[in-house]
Specification:
The protein is an alpha/beta fold. It is built from 9 helices and 11 strands. The protein has one domain: Purple Acid Phosphatase, chain A, domain 2 (4-Layer Sandwich), CATH 3.60.21.
Length: 246
């Protein structure tokens, strides 16, 4: 049976090798059987520029590149890795997609996005998002030396963690009205996204018809994978090796 995989919010980092190990095993053993693999953002915990070439980043690119020879791989930016450019995605054999992309998924039009733009109650973050996706801010940041970008990224992570502890769960989740608005805009009855780390399959009404919103899980405690075929939609988990977590 034909099927397609979707993943997001892996937050890859050298600090958590067991997440990387789980991903590499998935890419080598399971993903080659799929029609396609879509990575819906936050593949990395932070991305300070394609010029930050490290053995770790190169190994991830090599693993995806190998997969891309048999299975098409697509990537949509997340809020942690929006600075990834085609220099790295080309190296990884990935096709870079727009932040909101509609595909034909076994006969059903499906909207794909990372999902952070749907959290409209977080006004402060939405202001930063608009700035960071503009034309001048990325150019300014990428013009800074690597050591300074690393410091800015680390400071940003710490502030984000402190902020999340204070925000309510409602503010950190998607806004229902925004979900409907975006789905109506693209004329779809199915939406797949990540970002909120709350894997689930939600039913709603869009354009006066039944609709579905599928939320991908994060990879903090296990690998989280969505498998979609013409007949089924399954949110699956992959266990981390016990020895790798220690």
């Amino acid at each position: 049976m034909n099927f397609t995989y979707f993943i997001s919010d892996l937050h890859l980092s050298e600090a958590y090798p067991y997440i990387t190990q789980c991903l590499i095993e998935f890419l080598s053993s399971e993903a080659p059987e799929a029609d396609a693999l879509y990575v819906l953002g936050d593949l990395f915990d932070v991305w300070i520029g394609d010029d930050n070439v490290t053995p770790f980043n190169e190994s991830i690119a090599a693993a995806f590149k190998k997969l891309s020879k048999v299975t098409p791989v697509y990537f949509i930016h997340g809020n942690r890795d929006f600075a990834i450019r085609e220099g790295w995605t080309d190296k990884a054999g990935m096709t870079l997609l727009p932040e909101q992309c509609v595909i034909d998924l076994y006969g059903e039009k499906t909207l794909l996005t990372h999902g952070d733009e749907l959290c409209t109650l977080d006004v402060e973050y939405q202001k930063f998002r608009r700035k960071s996706r503009g034309w001048w801010w990325p150019r300014l940041m990428l013009s800074l030396p690597l050591w300074l970008r690393r410091k800015i990224a680390e400071d940003g992570r710490q502030k984000s963690q402190q902020k999340q502890q204070k925000l309510s769960t409602e503010i950190m989740d998607v806004t229902p009205d925004e979900v409907v608005k975006v789905m109506e805009k693209h004329q779809v009855q199915r939406l797949i996204h990540g970002h909120t780390h709350r894997p689930n399959i939600h039913t709603l009404e869009v354009n006066g018809k039944p609709a579905t919103r599928i939320v991908l899980g994060d990879w903090y405690e296990q690998g989280s994978i969505l498998k979609v075929s013409a007949l089924a939609v399954e949110l699956e988990k992959r266990s981390f090796a016990a020895t790798s977590i220690g």
